[in-house]
Amino acid sequence: MEPVKIGLLGLGTVGGGTVSVLSRNANEIARRAGRAITISQAAAKEYSKDISGLETVGNITDDAFAVVNDPDVEIIIELIGGYSPALELVMKAIENGKHVVTANKALIATHGNEIFAAAQAKGVTVAFEAAVAGGIPIIKAVREGLAANQIEWAAGIINGTSNFILSEMLLKSRDFDDVLAEAQALGYAEANPEFDIEGVDAAHKLTILSSIAFGIPLQFDKVYREGITNIERQDVAYALELGYKIKHLGITRMTDQGVELRVHPTLIPHRRLIANVDGVMNAILVKGDAVGPTLYYGAGAGSEPTASSVIADVVDVVRALTTDPGNRVPHLAFQPSAMSDIAIKPMEEVETGYYLRVLAVDKPGVLSDITSILGDLNISIEAIIQKEPEGDVADVPVIFLTQMTREKNMNQAISKIEALASVKDKVKRIRVESLA
Ligand code: HSE
Fold first, then answer.
1. Mind listing the pLDDT tens digit for each residue in 381-431?
2. Does 305 contact ligand 1 (Cβ within 6 A)?
3. What region does 279 belong to: left with phi over 0, alpha with psi -120 to 50, or beta?
């Protein structure tokens, strides 16, 4: 049988890795896919001539639309990233009847609904395993491996850059800016690193994961989002004193009031396996009603780990080339006609525990003012630590750990605490999850 011809868009970090792995493991991959796979065309504005296996690529052009319009190409791999021209290229590929494999989480999270509708109408596949957690096959695990379950919740470390920064701050007492610069130099960070540290990248990935878990349309605009820019070294240390680690988590949970969809720094008990996932590694906990909790761990970014997911999707598409389109694995796990319109739960209704760091004047009565505010709002305190004043500074940090309460109660409590004359700064709030 003729090899399947691929058009590869982008020869950057992941594109280069895809060429290398596809050429290095060509025999193994063909034995799995049932046919040889060849990159007949690649498009890139600039690329390194040192990519291993580059000689196996048929033709390299700077015109991505020419690749998408090449009638011999059956599968397009989109590794350009960003919204435009990635969206136009993917839509053109679909219009031309080509299957698409992409690692583009921003594209899928924000335009996935229209992309999948077009693909469904045309009878082609759009596969995106590499869009969530790089090399970890989490899409396949949730969409296929856990298909028997009602998914109850999923929580994950899904931005390697943020996890690297938090880990280095904790393990090596390094400063935020210094670690971010290293993450950029190592090629983990997004082109715009604000996407990493402000939680946008994690929100893209969580949007996709939530849709696959619960059979709901992609709703990136409904994600509650906080990044890690407000986390200071002292919070990491105080949390540890209380028996917690701070991780930037994406959390989605089915509740009677709707689906929780939120990314924010979170205190988690330090003994949990996921609390010990450090550096750029990603990990995702998924709880299904039948299977119980399951944990997926691995490289969430990087050239060959992400290429591993891209090529796995290509193999799936090659295997499915002869399958009736109606019987292929649905894009968002559930059949398009069986999607649910359950609402996303407003953040104000979400219940969690809270870590609060309050900078207060060191004088009698201050603690009782704060505990009264919490008590009046029915917020129960689990632990308090008051630190010694440092040097000449008269104000002291007081750390509160609360039991579960509703976000809107905590918003009120924080406003009242910040209004006290004895409180000297904004209250630092980090949510707590037991993940039990
Ligand atoms: N910037 C992303 C991260 C890359 O740090 O996880 C993988 O999506």
1. 999 998 777 767 778 999 999 999 999 999 999 999 999 999 999 999 999
2. no
3. left
